[in-house]
Write a structure and sequence with these properties.
With 342 residues, the chain is an all-alpha fold. It has 2 domains: 149 residues, no CATH class; 179 residues, no CATH class. The protein is 56% helix and 3% strand. β1 and β2 form a beta hairpin. It is globular, with a radius of gyration of 19 Å. One of its GO terms (molecular function) is oxidoreductase activity. This is DUF4243 domain-containing protein. Keywords: Oxidoreductase. It comes from Streptomyces niveus (Streptomyces spheroides).
């Protein structure tokens, strides 16, 4: 697939449209996925489809939120996790990235934000991962840095930690560890309600101390969670994609972070993936049926034609994994999900 992100200018146009909107939609009840989708499409050489997709999604967008009071170095702790302060947090990161190199800002705030990556159903860290990918792979410019600031600001406003959980016996590999995750006792309610019921998770990779091993383990986790969707996605076709896309966002961010942050990033990503797995586990897996021979380009075209934002973002992660089972999982997401009407 040809990456046209630096030649078309379409991503910058789309981000310009989106930065007038808030990070959530339907009066702060759901996440605005458009910034992540347009980055994925542009990065995969589908810039020609960006504005058409965005036109179909546009009606969902809400206005940029109202400012309350500035976030400062003196008061940021009390503002962390305050959903009323979304605009204030975005302003804070816009100022920070204007005054300092973006990698320095990211390195300072990543360990502060990482424990709260579960807020906003993990969408804030996913948005940050998309922004970091396009900056690191295709270069920085004003709209891309602004997008990073919006992602970090959204994360800070939605910052929400997971309470202590009882450690369970794990497994030597990511597939086995995800298989060992127990379902929560009560599936009533939304993401935050279910998250409060996650009280037991297997231990996996707790003994990892080497940054390179942490990166390799994180890569394995993304692959395992993506593969698992092919047989378990029917548990909740939308929310279970985050078991793969959230750790992949962390993986995409590692190259921009100091190596000392790679190991804690792995541990946080595992907890997020395992928690989502616990919260939306189906009663039984479906049989695995390999998809007919299909190229990555064909899978992406099918996801784009389908249009659902989670389908496109999950396909983006499946393309990173790149094997037959990952492509089968992406096609499974297409089959399970409601399409976006263009």
């Amino acid at each position: 697939m040809t990456n046209d992100v630096n030649t078309s200018g379409v991503l910058e146009e789309a981000l310009g449209r989106l930065h007038a909107s808030g990070p959530e939609i339907y009066e702060w009840r759901l996440t605005n996925h458009a910034p992540m989708v347009v980055e994925a499409l542009a990065t995969h050489g589908r810039s020609a489809a960006v504005h058409r997709w965005l036109d179909a999604y546009q009606a969902r967008l809400d206005d940029f939120p109202t400012r309350v009071s500035p976030v400062t170095d003196a008061n940021w702790r009390e503002a962390l996790g305050d959903t009323r302060r979304g605009a204030d947090w975005i302003d804070h990161f816009l100022r920070a990235i204007e005054e300092r190199p973006w990698r320095d800002v990211l390195a300072e705030w990543w360990p502060r934000l990482l424990p709260g990556m579960y807020g906003g159903a993990t969408h804030p860290v996913i948005r940050v991962g998309h922004a970091v990918r396009v900056i690191t792979e295709s270069g920085e410019n004003g709209p891309r840095l602004t997008e990073l600031a919006h992602g970090l600001g959204y994360w800070a406003a939605r910052h929400h930690t997971v309470p202590g959980v009882t450690p369970l016996a794990g497994a030597p590999d990511a597939d086995g560890a995800l298989e060992a995750v127990p379902a929560i006792s009560d599936f009533q309610g939304g993401f935050r309600d279910r998250l409060a019921r996650v009280d037991r998770l297997p231990v996996w990779s707790a003994d990892v101390t080497d940054p390179d091993e942490a990166r390799d383990r994180l890569t394995a986790l993304v692959a395992a969670a993506t593969h698992r969707y092919a047989t378990h996605g029917h548990g909740e076709e939308t929310m279970l994609v985050h078991a793969a896309t959230a750790p992949n966002a962390v993986l995409r961010t590692l190259p921009a972070l100091p190596r000392a942050l790679w190991v804690p990033s792995l541990h946080a990503a595992w907890t997020a993936s395992a928690a989502v797995t616990s919260m939306y586990a189906p009663s039984a897996p479906a049989p695995y049926t390999p998809a007919p021979a299909t190229t990555p380009e064909e899978v992406l075209e099918r996801a784009l034609a389908h249009g659902d934002e989670h389908v496109i973002k999950f396909t983006d992660t499946a393309l990173d994994v790149g094997d037959e089972r990952a492509l089968t999982a992406a096609l499974r997401a297409i089959d399970l999900s409601e399409p976006l009407i263009y």
